[in-house]
Write a structure and sequence with these properties.
The complex is a heterodimer of chains A (267) and B (335). Chain A has 267 residues and is an alpha+beta fold. Chain A contains 5 helices and 16 strands. The chains are: A alpha+beta (267), B mainly beta (335).
Chain lengths: 267, 335
């Protein structure tokens, strides 16, 4: 009987200790602490993982496939913490090209952000393309990014500036089969302003600490570029989008709505 | 009686030997991948919380006999690796080798103990990954209430207290237990579609059980409801509480050599969401209903058992994890 009593007491202790309250993470002092965040861009078309040379259906009985390029520029990444404070990724390392060719075998493109202030973040904001302030800083103001953009075919010329997005492939509509598809949208120098920002609420708080490397998994639905806020048709000229003052803003707004945060990982 | 004493010591010796050897073997191979976020070959390991708890497998034998034995459980899962409907699928196999026992403490009190060794395998895109080590041990204390037939009065209205009580075959049992974090949990591995690809959960869990049993010499029914209160592990990761319901009906065929006890059973498990840093994680809850068919063979003091379970309906981790099948075999020595 004594044995039994001890056993029961032991079990009770086990239960009580397992129910003990959690340490409150908000009470720790994070001043001066830096960490990192990895953004994981995952391109898809609807519920399908994106792949080159695969035919995807869009509205109006049109279809497309991308054959060589799926790239876009992300810049001005910043985070808002649970107290409403904003932290911007340090300038000089806050312009990126998300290139499908850089994806791992799961189709994910990693963007590693270092020197992030330790905090509990609840919101992310980033820009698509390059804003006018940055562009008007001239060639030296672009830092190494200019060379990168040129190498990746994301820069027309100094007069026309950056291509914010680059889709190259083929399309099929009622009258054309496998016609050339090229969507190269930008601000065309300063003649337009197609730079757009996206703000997304994080499904779980992202905890940045020296010893933690959280990941934010961002889903980008490429189909929304054509079937987004506005549905556009290749037959109406959207098979070739370059500098048009009507077409490019529509593509820019469609792209603004193609991102969602699927989930986050806290390490 | 002396024999029994000797046996108890032998048993104790055996258990401690097993324990030390298993601890000695304890070796974790976290899938051999390096945590390089930019590696184009990055592959992580996956799994699910349902795999590390064995509630729906039952704690004992059909006849509720006391025993010590060895059990092998094989479970297979498929997990989607990615967020798209055409994301690639990995296949996980979990082999569990258990030393399990139901030890009598007093006439109405018993202890169930379970010491598992986990051997996990994951196949993904032609690559195989291994993870093995001591799993989570559990211990449950049971109180068993047996219902007896009412005493019949003699003709002269006196009650004969000399006759022994006759059991009706009905009994209730109450269990209170704990699952110990003896298996290693790795945060790295949990950041996946199937966070149960672990040898242990790293948490101390409590469990509360209520069972009803009926057994005659022809057939019997065992029903058990268990609720698991999952604790938080040191990675601030907490598997969701789990309700496990199971029932088994068996018949008894007696031959000169053995008793054959075939059974049919159902189990239903409900998992709540996983929480981390006090926030619930989306698509981490689920349900699993399985049908089980099997048999026990009682030969003298030995109980041999085998069963096969197939999911009848399931929704685990937002449909990203699929339980395929599981089977188990065991051999017990009745005490």
């Amino acid at each position: 009987m004594k044995q039994l009593k001890y056993t029961l007491v032991l079990l009770l202790c086990a239960i009580i200790s397992s129910c003990s309250s959690d340490n409150d993470a908000t009470t720790e002092n994070l001043t001066g602490q830096k960490g990192s965040i990895a953004l994981k861009f995952d391109n898809g078309v609807g519920d399908q993982n994106f792949a080159f040379n695969t035919t995807y259906q869009k509205s109006n009985n049109e279809s497309f496939q991308l054959t060589t390029d799926l790239k876009y520029i992300i810049s001005n990444v910043r985070f808002k913490d649970q107290n409403g404070n904003e932290f911007a990724v340090p300038e000089g390392n806050n312009m990126f090209i998300i290139d499908q060719d850089d994806a791992n075998n799961a189709g994910e493109i990693f963007l590693n952000l270092d020197n992030i202030n330790a905090a509990n973040y609840t919101e992310i904001t980033f820009g698509i393309g390059v804003d006018q302030d940055k562009y008007t800083q001239g060639a030296t103001g672009q830092g190494n990014f200019l060379t990168l953009a040129q190498d990746k075919g994301m820069f027309w010329s100094w007069a026309s500036g950056y291509k914010f997005v680059r889709l190259d492939g083929i399309y099929t509509d009622a009258t054309t089969t496998n016609g050339a598809l090229a969507v190269h949208m930008g601000s065309v120098g300063t003649s337009l302003d197609n730079y757009k920002e996206v703000t997304l609420t994080l499904p779980n708080t992202v905890l940045v600490r020296t010893n933690k490397s959280p990941e934010i998994h961002i889903k980008a639905d490429i189909l929304k570029i054509f079937d987004g806020e506005t549905s556009v048709n290749f037959a109406d000229g959207y098979n070739q989008v370059h500098t048009d003052a009507t077409e490019t803003p529509i593509i820019a707004v469609n792209m603004q709505n193609m991102f969602t945060v699927h989930h986050v990982h806290n390490d | 009686m002396k024999d029994l004493q000797n046996f108890k010591y032998t048993l104790l010796g055996f258990i401690s030997l097993m324990a030390t050897s298993v601890f000695g073997m304890h070796k974790i191979e976290p899938c051999g991948h390096t945590h390089n976020k930019f590696s184009p070959l990055e592959i992580k390991c996956d799994l699910c919380g349902c795999t590390t708890t064995s509630g729906s497998f039952g704690f004992g034998t059909l006849s509720n006999a006391n025993f010590v034995g060895l059990r092998y459980i094989n479970q297979t899962f498929e997990s989607k690796n990615g967020i798209y409907s055409n994301s690639p699928v990995s296949k996980e196999t979990i082999n569990t080798y258990q030393l399990w026992a139901q030890i009598p403490v007093k006439k109405v009190f018993m202890l169930s103990v379970n010491l598992p060794y986990q051997d996990l395998n994951r196949e993904f895109q032609g690559k195989s990954q291994q993870l093995n080590g001591l799993g989570d041990a559990s211990i449950v204390g049971w109180y068993k209430h047996v219902f007896y037939k009412k005493k019949t009065e003699n003709k002269d209205k006196t009650i004969d207290y000399n006759t022994t009580k006759v059991a009706t075959g009905h009994s209730l049992q109450f269990g209170l237990g704990a699952k110990l974090p003896t298996g290693t949990f790795e945060q790295e591995l949990s950041n996946n579609v199937n966070p149960g690809f672990q040898v242990g959960t790293g948490s101390l869990d409590a469990m509360l059980s209520l069972g009803y049993n009926y057994g005659s010499n022809k057939f019997g029914i065992n029903t058990l409801a268990t609720y698991y209160f999952k604790g938080e592990n040191k990675n601030n990761y907490q598997f969701g509480n789990q309700l496990s319901l199971s029932t088994k009906a068996f018949t008894v065929f007696k031959t000169s050599k053995m008793n054959i006890m075939p059974f049919l059973g159902f189990s239903h498990d409900t998992f709540k969401e996983i929480t981390q840093y006090n926030e619930t994680l989306k698509d981490t809850n689920g349900t699993l209903t399985t049908g089980t068919i099997g048999s026990e063979f009682v030969v003298k003091q030995f109980i041999f058992g085998a069963n096969y379970a197939l999911p009848l309906s399931q929704d685990l981790f937002g449909g990203n994890v699929t339980s395929k099948s599981r089977f188990s075999v065991y051999v017990n020595l009745a005490l």
